[in-house]
Amino acid sequence: MNDSEVSAVGKQVIVACAFIHHNFDGVEKIFMSKRAATKKFMPSVFELPGGHVDFGEDIVAGLKREIREEFGKTITVGDPFAAFTYHNSVKGSHSIEVVYFAQFDDIGNIKLNPKDHSEYKWLSFDELPKVFGNGKDETDEEIQLIKRGFALLDAAQLKF
Q: Are strands 93-104 and 12-24 parallel, antiparallel or unpaired?
């Protein structure tokens, strides 16, 4: 049984996620991964990468650990820009998710851990509908914060 299936009824769980972005020939894109079909919570759903922060673990260290475990990559973590909560019906927990701007230290050679993810995509703002489905659409809270992340990146680029 993996951590996302361990019972946590009545507990709060902290989740750290990365809004990993990269500029491809003048087009800003974000990295999204598809959860493995074998996952009990949100199987086959595209999401921002990240995971549970262990008890006593620094939230940024936990995010870096999760990215290393799931993709074999290191990241540079920037500022948090969003947070939201949800009920995890599999764990029975109340999750608090914090989303950070981040970048891969090197975008090549991404290795998916098949227990966690089945594929990934680099998506521009206009390509977000490619990950809709399985309960995720433009009204989904994570999609709304992704749109906000793109807007913040655009605003930051205008300052320079």
A: parallel
Contact 19, 4 (CB under 8 A): no
pTM over 0.70: yes
Q: 111 to each of 2, 31, 101, how far by Cα in Å?
A: 19, 13, 21
125 DSSP 8-state letter:
G
Local structure of 89: helix, strand or coil: coil
Give the per-residue SS3 of 95-114.
Answer: EEEEEEEEEECCCCCCCCCC
Beta carbons of 47 and 15 less than 8 angstroms apart: no
Tokens found for residue 149? 């992340």
Average pLDDT in the chain: 90
